[in-house]
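Exercise 7. Given the encoded structure of a 130-residue chain, write a plausible sequence.
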């Protein structure tokens, strides 16, 4: 007998979530290779299993090419997730894909460190290289 999880099926449409757009501005130094580090220390989303809030620190490192990310739009983008039930792994993948669409960086790494839940800290990272 298969036991159905209370969150089974909730994440099937995660790739098609209609998130707010992340805006970008034109980089005046596209010929230079440099790194931008962004830290979002008070990120929140919802655990899709329990409905309780999950807290994390999101670290974004990227090397811009033609575009840099506009920070206010990134803030509005992250606030969107406050009421979204999403697994940690899905969150990092979704954020990376949306960030790449917005800025087309040379490379990008997103790391999310979630506060302990049940005594377990979860860290999820994903990298993109052009």
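Solution.
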């Amino acid at each position: 007998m298969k036991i159905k999880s209370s969150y089974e099926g909730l994440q099937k449409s995660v790739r098609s979530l209609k998130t707010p757009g992340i805006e970008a501005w034109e980089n005046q130094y596209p010929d230079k290779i440099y790194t931008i580090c962004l830290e979002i220390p008070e990120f929140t989303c919802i655990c899709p299993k329990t409905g309780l809030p999950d807290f994390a620190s999101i670290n974004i490192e990227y090397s811009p090419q033609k575009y840099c990310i506009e920070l206010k739009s990134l803030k509005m983008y992250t606030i969107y997730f406050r009421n979204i039930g999403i697994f940690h792994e899905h969150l990092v993948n979704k954020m990376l894909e949306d960030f790449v669409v917005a800025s087309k960086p040379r490379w990008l790494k997103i790391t999310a460190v979630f506060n302990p839940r049940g005594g377990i800290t979860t860290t999820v990272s994903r990298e993109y290289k052009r």
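Remark. The mean pLDDT is 92. Students should compare their own answers with the one above.
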